[in-house]
Write a structure and sequence with these properties.
The structure is a single chain. The protein is mainly alpha-helical. It is built from eight helices and no strands. The radius of gyration is 20 Å and the shape is globular.
């Protein structure tokens, strides 16, 4: 928190305009959730004005996710096709992932901001999978507005108690993320052994 406090003391609103885009393109300096909550606290203390703070935070968020989206759209798939095999990201796997993303992607764009790690990757995947910009903007920009409003609201409403409330919410979100990761691991453990056996059978038949 001392780092964030120094940033605000030195740069004020510009921390939101230039810091949040870095957070949302996977360079979490400063971290988004705590930055927004602290912004609300500063607004509670009348150090910052609430409406300009909300406007700057929302603008910074939109800039960040838009940059990530266009990077994914213009560079994502060519890079995956060229280097994906080294990261076990083969095009056929991405195609299946794309089907899942097309089914649930809008919800992820809307609510993914509240999960650390997910909000940094969401926009990239939306670009890689060529989600139409209007669809992306509708859900992602709305999700950004919810994220900004709720976390700034935590600091503004709870004032001096904001860190306690923020810690509880942060632990709750980490718990959700652990559940999601656990579900993904279980899914992979159930699916990949059968695919590996199928792959071995195919290559055994060729030999």
């Amino acid at each position: 928190m001392e780092f964030i406090e120094r940033l605000f003391a030195q740069y004020g609103y510009f921390v939101l305009l230039f810091g949040l885009p870095l957070e949302l393109i996977a360079l979490p300096i400063p971290p988004g959730n705590s930055t927004l909550a602290y912004t609300g606290y500063l607004s509670h203390k009348n150090v910052l004005d609430l409406l300009p703070a909300l406007a700057m935070a929302y603008s910074g968020s939109v800039i960040g996710i838009s940059i990530a989206y266009w990077i994914g759209k213009k560079l994502g798939m060519p890079l995956v096709e060229k280097y994906g095999k080294w990261l076990f990201l083969k095009p056929e796997y991405l195609k299946k992932t794309r089907i899942t993303y097309e089914k649930y992607g809008n919800k992820m764009l809307l609510f993914g901001f509240f999960l650390p790690g997910v909000r940094q990757l969401n926009s990239y995947f939306a670009g890689i999978f060529q989600v139409p910009y209007r669809t992306f903007a509708l859900y992602a920009y709305t999700g950004a507005a919810l994220w900004v409003s709720i976390f700034i609201g935590i600091g503004y409403v709870f004032g001096n108690q904001w860190q306690l409330v923020f810690t509880l919410i942060d632990h709750f979100m980490k718990f959700i993320l652990i559940i999601l990761c656990g579900t993904l691991i279980i899914f992979l453990l159930l699916i990949w052994p059968s695919r590996l056996k199928k792959w071995l059978d195919i290559h055994k038949g060729k030999s």
